[in-house]
Request: fold
Amino acid sequence: MLDNLKEVLTPRTLISLSTEQITELQESLKSLGYKVKPDGLFGHQTASAFAEWKLAKYLKDPHLIGPNSLAVLEQDLERLRDRSEIDWTDWDLSLIHI
Reply:
């Protein structure tokens, strides 16, 4: 999903992102539960969501996008996809105590 971003980004680089790539980044953050509107504009909301995500992952430089942070973001998305593939229909949810 983030392959196009990996090709363009180097550490401390954001200027060369296309609108499509920013939208993809925003959609990724949104799918992970961060409040961001996928509009293709890298504004305050997107910067805040990305920084919040990086801080939650204990990654350095919360406002900088680079290949390492994108790799971790991709891992988060993979874990999200893996969880969404669980078929809960046969589970006895009454056995789960919260």
